[in-house]
Amino acid sequence: MVRWKPGAADRLRSAALELFHERGFEQTTAADIAEAAGVTERTFFRHYSDKREVLFGGQDSLRQLFVDGVAGAPAEWSAAAIVEHVVQSIESYFDADHRSSSRVRQAVIDANPGLQERELLKMASLARATAVAFGERGVPEPQATLAAESGVTVFGVAYRQWIADEEESSFAAIVGEVFGELRAVTKG
User: Fold this and answer.
1) Distances (CA, A) of 91 to 73, 81, 86, 155
2) Distances (CA, A) of 108 to 13, 60, 144, 163
3) Cβ–Cβ under 8 Å, residues 130 and 70
4) CB atoms inside a 10 Å sphere around CB 78
5) At 179, is the pLDDT very low, low, confident or very high (cuts 50, 70, 90)?
């Protein structure tokens, strides 16, 4: 008899999102998630330090994509060109296969003030790390912070549009439109 099935982290995430959506975040325990995923609670804690990490576990990877994108951009690019390229290039992180689960994730966060606060902290941390990466490239302040904050803001606006009901455009297409809107705002 097979005791171990691969894909436990994905099953845990899927089960958690379903339970959070059905019962609410506060009413769902790690034990509930583990049971729904067909694993032990111990297995849950091998993959996630707590149930919030099911929702926010990818933040380190996302931050690294931003930082690496800034660091790896051609030397002759402006901060504006770099940040637009970086936000455009993370489309693989937000492919169409993940849109449905991203919608559920955001609905769970929107329903819980503590999770909303965590999301804001995540975005602030992303902006700080990106600003540091710009500084390491030699971009002076306040340009480094402005570029980073603008990129993270565009990312957030684009993400909200991407998960909107009935939305079918790619993440990259939406990012392009939002950067166009930002350019229109800053021309005035």
Assistant:
1) 17, 17, 10, 11
2) 13, 20, 33, 13
3) yes
4) 12
5) very high
> What is the average pLDDT score of the chain?
93
Q: What was the pLDDT predicted at 2?
A: 41
State whether residue 88 is helix, strand or coil. Answer: helix
pLDDT one-digit tens code per residue, 63-72: 999 999 999 9
Which pLDDT belongs to residue 58?
84
* CB-CB contact of 151 with 130 (8 Å): yes
Name the pTM for this structure.
Answer: 0.90
DSSP state of 169: S
* 70: nearest Cα among 187, 150, 168: 150
- Distance between CA 168 and CA 142 in Å, rounded? 36
